[in-house]
Specification:
By secondary structure, this protein is α/β, with parallel strands linked by helices. The protein has 10 helices and 7 strands. A 7-stranded mixed β-sheet has the order 3-2-1-4-5-7-6, sandwiched between helices.
């Protein structure tokens, strides 16, 4: 029997309703920066979970690879990829995001790297950012989301205390635009765009999902299933009527094509001036 009967029945859209209601917001944002392609461009998703975004990228024409530390999630993602008709275009491997810099086979292989709601779980976030930079081809992009440092807690644990060790929960509250710029500067990325997603409607649906899920995960899932389309229609007017901090900060970062050449040129010029 399939472990994902809804995906078996409804295909890819069902992969976006297995998690919290904010997953769809992140996918819609990703689609803005993943134009459909026939050019065999490669995408790496670091922290792919059960594979929704990796599968979605494959459906948009990319050769995609999803990396997850959880072998059970990898197996589930592979099953779902077959159900969605992208077996062979979406590949999944077991790997720890904290050890990404120990995967030389991934270095410089991808036009786009996706990392959604992962970096806030990792103490050495600069190490991860540098490893992500290494995986992106010159001229490629990083698409990253993380909790907005200025969010209003959906449920009490969002306010902490955040653990000092990597337990699987968030080790920091989130990221502001300035924090993302700092990481990009240190890692070698150029910030292309910073925006936000998941407003009041999505957050309140996530609150309902979490509260009902305390009784039973199936109850939580069923309680919000018929309400999941609401953010598509209501988020903007509600935000206008009731301004509310978005839950996630969204980053588009660019790896320069000519940075290495510029560095070499500057070095040569410096040596020439010194010689004179």
């Amino acid at each position: 029997m399939s472990s994902s009967p809804l995906v078996d029945l409804f295909g890819f859209p069902a992969t976006l309703v297995h998690g919290d209601p904010m997953v769809l917001d992140r996918w819609r944002w990703l689609c803005e920066h993943l134009p459909r392609t026939r050019n065999e461009e490669r995408v790496l998703e670091v922290g792919c979970g059960s594979g929704a975004f990796t599968i979605g990228a494959a459906r948009r024409g990319y050769q995609s690879v999803g990396l997850s530390w959880n072998a059970a999630d990898v197996a589930k993602a592979q099953e779902r990829a077959a159900m969605c008709g992208v077996e062979g275009k979406a590949e999944f491997v077991v790997g720890d995001a904290r050890e990404l810099d120990r995967r030389p086979e991934l270095v410089g292989q991808f036009e786009t790297v996706i990392c959604c709601e992962v970096i806030e779980h990792i103490l050495d976030d600069l190490r991860l950012m540098k490893a992500l930079h290494a995986c992106v081809k010159p001229g490629g992009r990083l698409l990253m989301t993380a909790p907005n440092r200025d969010y209003r807690a959906i449920t009490a644990p969002d306010d902490g205390p955040h653990p000092k060790t990597e337990t699987g929960w968030h080790v920091r509250r989130g990221y502001s635009a300035v924090m993302f710029r700092e990481l990009c500067d240190q890692a070698g990325f150029v910030v292309e765009d910073i925006s936000f997603c998941s407003g009041w409607v999505s957050q309140k649906l996530t609150w309902l999902w979490r509260q009902a899920g305390r009784l039973d995960q199936r109850v939580g899932w069923l309680s919000v299933l018929p309400l999941r389309p609401l953010p598509l229609f209501l988020e903007r007017p509600v935000q206008w009527l009731r301004p509310w901090p978005p839950f996630s900060t969204c980053l588009v970062a660019y790896r320069p094509r000519f940075a290495e050449r510029i560095t070499e040129s500057s070095s040569v010029t410096h040596r020439s001036v010194k010689a004179v």
